[in-house]
Recover the amino acids of this structure.
């Protein structure tokens, strides 16, 4: 069933009834169809381009699959905290691993990640400070204290799937006067460069863009949302969300 031919309602035999397509995708009732809501937050953007994610600045992508180390800024205080890291392996297949912070406040994965697009606190113990997921000094994900999961408006389409971008939601606000954000929605297919797929300016507002004909994005493609402010002292707070269905090829 392609994204261009799905019915509004999915009908089940045996008198079970009919249900909206998107509800059934979220319930896992349509084989090979998955739903993703990817959202991010950047608390301070000025006149240098930044990606919309917790750690701020420009996000760095791995060139090869590597083991990841989760480290709490609170050190031994967060001994026993469980962290689940989600991303893709060297073959762009979905990979998830849960680690438990040791007495040093750190834990390293046994699996190797080519991409990370989410990390979350998955146990009953809440961390007391930020947790960074790193390799060789580079941060690939950050769980900000109090959030218990990453806020990253970036993702990579797994191998064997095509993603369909349904909607983007972006807000930009500041206490400064007459400052605005220029926002880019960009994709990069494997071994190519990032290109802009949508671009708009926001002045103290929210921008909601629904794509009536969803934008198809092939497997192994990176997706990111980034923004730049109109001045060096804009202090923009920017959030972004991507609503996506991805379907097995």
């Amino acid at each position: 069933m392609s994204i261009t031919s799905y019915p509004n309602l999915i009908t089940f035999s045996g008198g079970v009834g009919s249900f909206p397509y998107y509800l059934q995708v979220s319930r896992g009732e349509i084989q090979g169809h998955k739903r993703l809501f990817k959202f991010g937050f950047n608390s301070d953007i000025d006149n240098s381009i930044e990606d919309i994610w917790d750690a701020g600045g420009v996000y760095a992508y791995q060139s090869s699959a590597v083991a990841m180390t989760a480290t709490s800024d609170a050190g031994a205080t967060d001994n026993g905290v469980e962290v689940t890291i989600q991303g893709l392996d060297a073959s762009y297949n979905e990979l998830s691993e849960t680690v438990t912070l040791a007495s040093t406040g750190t834990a390293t994965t046994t699996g190797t990640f080519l991409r990370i697009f989410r990390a979350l606190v998955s146990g009953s113990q809440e961390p007391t400070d930020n947790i960074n997921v790193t390799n060789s000094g580079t941060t690939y994900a950050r769980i900000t204290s109090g959030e218990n999961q990453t806020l990253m408006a970036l993702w990579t389409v797994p191998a064997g799937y095509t993603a369909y971008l349904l909607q983007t939601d972006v807000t930009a606000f500041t206490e400064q006067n007459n400052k605005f954000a220029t926002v880019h929605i960009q994709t990069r297919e494997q071994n190519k460069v990032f290109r802009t797929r949508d671009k708009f300016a926001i002045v103290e507002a929210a921008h909601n863009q629904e794509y009536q004909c969803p934008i198809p994005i092939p497997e192994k493609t990176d997706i990111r949302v980034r923004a730049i402010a109109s001045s060096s002292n804009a202090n923009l707070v920017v959030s972004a969300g991507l609503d996506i269905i991805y379907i097995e090829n």
Q: What stands out?
A: Residues 2 and 61 are 30 Å apart (CA to CA). Residues 1-5 have pLDDT under 50 and may be disordered.
